[in-house]
Every structure is written in structure tokens, then in C-alpha cells.
Amino acid sequence: MRWRRLLLRQEQIGTGRAIALALICVAVATLARAAMGLAGALLPFPTFFPAELIAALIGGPLAGLLTVALSLLVVWSLFMAPVAATALLGAEPLGDLALFTLSGLVIVWLASLHRQLVFELEENEKARSTLAREIQHRSANLLLVMTSLVRQSVPDPAVATALIDRMRTVAKSDDLLDPSRGPGPARLAQLVEDTVRRPYGTHVSMAGPDVGLDAAQAHGLRLMLHEMATNAAKYGALSDGHGRVSIDWRRDGDTLNIVWRESGGPTVAPPTRNGFGSKLIQTMLQEIKGTLVSDYVASGYAYTITLRVGDSIEHPADSIATE
């Protein structure tokens, strides 16, 4: 939105620039109204409402109010007074002017409010982006420290290398905090492999056709699967080294069903409250326009994610199955 950044600058313009902007907007509106008059139009106000809106959006409240005042003067002087001079001045023209003024003030107020909200959203987005980069930076530094500690503490080089590889795989999840650094279009099998199976090795199995996902679906599913894996590692099948997680998916037309099923771990119970992870999953479901069915059986958590994959390509011959 480069043009919007040029027009909606996050700064208050001075009085001189506000007057200049108001004069330009009113001049253009006056010329447009004069052209409409040549075409037979009689209403004096239509072209001045957009002028007030544009002035308030670009220049803020001061430019908008100046445009309302100048528009009122021009409308009366050029388009209403000549008509009023040929007849007795009644209450109707005054009522029209009052309504025009009130409408202009409302337009300026709404435009200024919109302008303020846009700037606040941009500031919040900058703050979130900065926080995400800071978290990624600290995580990278922490990973370096942990890698050094593992190499110093684990005598077996093969075990140390395997542990470090898993740590690096899990650390990649920090990129999910910033969608701009996240994946573009992706294959579902590779996404499951990178997000769940590689960090947890043989405790995770996966099976299903090779389905393509767009960038938004890939980002949302990666976050959701990572959250489910984290939950399983804390409370479920991946928490004690004995359980397993199976991830199976199938496609029926434009509908993709992904089934996450845990087994062999500790006895689990339904959550008593919705924490951050649950809220994150619900947010991602809304973004990818999907649904989630949860089954909290004692033998292990089970989830079914359903979403539409549109024109994504499936290659039956490239079906994936791992144990």
C-alpha cells in the first residue's frame, strides 16, 4: 500500500499546509460542481462531501474543518445565493446549509477517527514485529548456549549430535511468530515431517497423500501441529518416552481431513480451561477457515482438523507412510 503511506502520513501537518490542502480540495470540488451544473444538475452539495473526506483523511481534523468552512462559503456564494436572489429567502436554504454543515462535521470526525485507528494498528503491528524478532534473536542465542552445554556434558558424540539436531528442529518453530518469515506454499507431508516427526523421531508416524497447501494454510497448520506436539510433550503421549502419535490425512474432493491420535502415553483428561494454546489453535482455524473436533479419551488425545484445499494438487502415487 505504497500510495496509502504517501497520503496517510503519521504526522500533523501545519496550518499553512492544511489551508493549502483545503483550498485544493474545495477548488476541485467547485470545478466538478460547475461541470455538473452545465449538465443540468441542480443540487449544490454533492461534490463537496468527497472533498471534505479526502482533506480529513490526508490532512487530519484541521484540514477537514477548513474544507467544511470553505465549502460552505463557496456553496452559498456560487450556487445558492444567485438562486436565492431571485426569490424570497425562506427557511429551506438555511436548513439545507445547516444539514450540509452537520454532515461535513460528521464526515471529518469519522475520517479523523479512521485515520487515528489506522495509525494505532500500524504502531501495534510494528511492536509485534519487533517483539517477534527479539524472541527469535534470544532463542538463537539460547540455542548456541544449550548446544555448547550439550557438547560439554554428553560424552557420546553421536548422542550429543542427535540431541542438538532435535533442539535445532524445535528452535525453528520461532520463525512461526513472524508470518513474513514463515513458509510459502508447502506440501503437507513435508510440513508434518518438519514440524512433528523430525523433532520426535520414531514416536511419530504419518501417512497420507501428498497434498499441496497455500501459504496461509501452511502457516496455520504448522502453528497448530506445533502446539499439539508441545501439548503432547508436556502432558500426552510424548511426555514419557513410551507413547506414540499417529498423524493421518485423507482428501475427499476439496475437503482435507487430518487426524491426530495419541496412544501409549499416560492417562489424560479433558482440559479444565482454555489456555493460550487453545486460543491460538482457534485463531488459526479461523484464518484457514477450518474446523477442529477434539476427543479427550483416557488413552490419549485425538483431534480431527478439516479444511478446504481448493485447487491444491494431490499426487496419489506419492502417498507418504512412515512408522
From TrEMBL:
Transmembrane segments: 58-81, 93-111
Keywords noted in UniProt: ATP-binding, Kinase, Membrane, Nucleotide-binding, Phosphoprotein, Transferase, Transmembrane, Transmembrane helix
Keyword Transmembrane helix assigned: yes
MF GO annotations: ATP binding; protein histidine kinase activity
UniProt entry tagged with the keyword Transmembrane: yes
Catalytic activity, EC: 2.7.13.3
Chain ranges of the Signal transduction histidine kinase HWE region domain: 134-210
Protein name (record): histidine kinase
Organism lineage string: Bacteria, Pseudomonadati, Pseudomonadota, Alphaproteobacteria, Hyphomicrobiales
